[in-house]
Amino acid sequence: MTLNPAAATVSAPKNDSLPVLKEGLPAGLTTDEAQRRLGTSGRNAVPDTSVHPARMALIKFWAPVPWMLEAAVVLEISLGKYVEAAIIGALLLFNAALGFVQESRAQATLAALKSRLALTATVRRDGRWVNIPATELVIGDIAKLSLGGVVAADMRLSSGEVLLDQSMLTGESVPIEAGSGVETFAGALVRRGEAVAEVTATGVRTKFGRTAELVRTAHVASSQEKAVLRVVRNLAAFNGIVIAVLMVYAYFLGLPLAEIVPLVLTAVLASIPVALPATFTLAGALGAKALAKRGVLPTRLSAVDEAATMDVLCVDKTGTLTLNALQVTTVRAMSGFDSPHVLALAALASADGGQDPVDAAIRTEASKNCVSDAPDMIDFLPFDPAKKMSEATATDASGAHVRIVKGAYAMVIALTQPSTSASASADDLEKQGFRVLAVAVGPQGGMTLAGLIALSDPPRPDSTALIAELRGLGVQSLMVTGDAPATAAIVASAVGLNGAVCPAGAIPSGVEPGKFAVFAGVMPEDKYKLVKEFQRGGHTVGMCGDGANDAPALRQAQIGIAVSTATDVAKSAAGMVLIQPGLAGIVAAVKEGRVTFQRILTYTLTSIIKKIVTVLFLAIGLVMTGHAILTPLLMVIVMITGDFLSMSLTTDNVEPSAYPNAWRIGNLTIAGVILGFCLLAFCVAVLGIGKFNLNLGTGALCTLTFIVLVFGGQATVYAVRQRQHLWRARPSRWLVASTFADVLIASTLAVVGIAMTPLPVSVVAGVLLASVVFSFGLDVVKIPVFARLRIS
After folding, report:
1. CATH fold group of domain 222-291+593-789
2. pTM for this entry
3. What CATH class has 327-456?
């Protein structure tokens, strides 16, 4: 249901002055009065917080990497280098388009998933019952609640009786009986009965709407966003210093300004991790595509990466760990009866049709245990909230009339002879978290207790295995529910969540996941706060849920996961939606997320290495030759052949880690510097051979610089793509194909002399062979570096 706020200060007006019809039913609001209140309080809907496509597209140009590219375009144009400016502009557009398209696809899929018919409400207007869009409800409206309908706003019942399912709001799986004076909330479902109610709150002022407002304000920056920013910041700081030194040295060397400016521009281009955001997006998109085949829909691409780093998973009980469907768990027959007969009697005192979940559960269980001598029903009286029981009149085998009652133990036992054993049995079942019903049979005034029926919302068949598998992956699972502590503890124990239960109430500040296994009796705000407390403790938090009450925490968590039966609000707030029943998709998300993480980690590390090396190599080359060893155009070609073709790493064959990953950018940068100096030494050696042994001219040295950066970059990719030795796993076909294309393009340009001075085939082949040998040497250095810096 869509709810929307307008003036948050409007409160429910008193309706004592409403006209009353002769039969005692208020005439409701007039059309004019309803329109006036609608104008004051606003529509009964939450504001659409989705980003407009145009704004979404423009955002792609507003970030550190786009800023660098935009600055480079301006510099190229100012120097009259329009071809280079056009190429850099194309790279900028490619980055933006890739991110925009992938996010748009995810949002479009979610919109299709959420699509449904608009809700309507039956209200009293001008003394008549009329149907109106639920968004036009206002405070003071008199509305009718009917079987199967959705409560469209917060209301107070004025007459009638209904059975309300509020599990999507409160997390409580057992429906509640509601009569005159009882308040119900927007989003509740009417399972039985009919009632008239007065609207008391609309929009964000409803319990449902306040939850939606929490969703709107909840946000946490993804670790992926933080990683990109830290990489860009570290590279900018390091390379900025090198470029400043380069400029000073070029000035004192006496180079003309016409040569210094292109040199600086080349260095600036070399320092930009141009394809890093696009690679993150592409890796997330490929991971999302793989997850979709396994029943998981990521609605935010960053959620794929977050699944890899998740170390705490908060799981809702109702509908997530459990089936959200009442079932008969235990039948305790009294003396003279057996379980099948108790169920048969209870079924006679249960409504047919399946709308009441309690009656449906009893009739389903009774049908599995048919008895041949069950009484024949003559009359049936549905559940009476005042008496807290339903009853039936039937004829037994002798033709005599008997009365059968089924309901709350305290009410039914009052009609029979007191029984100490029955009371002890009922207390025992209630302590185990079951809902207990009593069944009695006999003539009026002389009834006998037939037995007790215990009902529960059972765990899903895969919940225990899921919790165990997640534990094996290093993810700690916690139950977070609005249910009572006793019931929550029993379900938690059944699915393997063993540990203390946090007392109901405010979430303790500084709480740690290891202290409790269960958080019970929590409100939406408490779940939201709990997630923030865990995040404050340095944890990457996942939140799995299905109801509107879970939405704020789903939004705040780094990875919010909505199950297949979740409300639209929960799906909108989540980063992932399970589109198939069960919870196995969470394990799939963790494993696929860790595969994606390894691919992105490799690309990020190679990007750090190459960006550091290229800028330093330009500076050293200037010292060795007295001239720039690379032109801006050649630098752009290196960016295309190196950075963008290396994006094929997003398809590489990798093994997911056995424990949660973490973005240790500091360690990654140190590793990049160490391995980068190895690559730098190789590049400088090749340049030295070209200048001092082969006596190459300035133009040929530029070409040599170009091919050693391309070939050395590819050698680095193969050396660092595996955390163990490079031959441990076969590279993907796309990676091999892109390497072949990269080497072929660079070799052809260098040998033919397109946009550069040509080099002999023997020189190009020699650099290529030396690069292959270098990759094995770098592999030897990599192993202890990765182990020391915990890069895995």
Report:
1. Calcium-transporting ATPase, transmembrane domain (1.20.1110)
2. 0.74
3. alpha beta
Tokens read off for 58: 């423009």
Asked if residues 568 and 546 have their Cβ atoms less than 8 Å apart, the reply is: no
Residue-level pLDDT at 381? 86
Instruction: Let me know: does 264 contact 635? Beta carbons within 8 Å.
Output: no
Q: Which CATH superfamily is domain 297-323+459-579 in?
A: HAD superfamily/HAD-like (3.40.50.1000)
**Tens-place pLDDT, residues 670-699:** 999 999 999 999 999 999 999 999 999 999
Q: Do residues 527 and 498 make contact, with C-beta atoms less than 8 angstroms apart?
A: no
Which positions are catalytic?
316
Angle at alpha carbon of residue 425, lines to 365 and 386, rounded to 5°:
70
Confidence of residue 293 (pLDDT cuts 50, 70, 90): confident
| Neighbouring residues of 732: CB distance < 8 A, sequence distance ≥ 6 | 648, 651, 652, 653
Nearest to 197, CA basis, from 142, 127, 270, 278: 142
- Residue 505 and residue 523: Cα distance in Å, rounded? 9
List the domain boundaries for the chain: 222-291+593-789, 297-323+459-579, 327-456
Strand blocks (E) in 627-689: none
CA angle 658, 554, 165 (to 5 degrees): 120
Which pLDDT tens digit goes with each residue over 579-605? 876 678 899 999 999 999 999 899 889
Which residues are registered as beta bridge partners of 609?
A: none
171 CB neighbour count, 10 Å cutoff: 29
DSSP secondary structure string for all residues of 757-774: ----HHHHHHHHHHHHHH
pLDDT over 70 percentage in the chain: 88
Nearest to 430 by CA among 450, 408, 412: 408
Length of the chain, in residues: 792
Using DSSP bridges, classify how beta strands 541-545 and 312-315 pair: parallel, antiparallel or unpaired: parallel
The span from the CA of 612 to the CA of 647, in Å, is 19
C-alpha–C-alpha distance, residues 395 and 441, integer Å: 11
Per-residue pLDDT band at 5 (split at 50, 70, 90): very low
704-736 pLDDT per residue, tens: 999 999 999 999 999 999 888 888 889 999 999
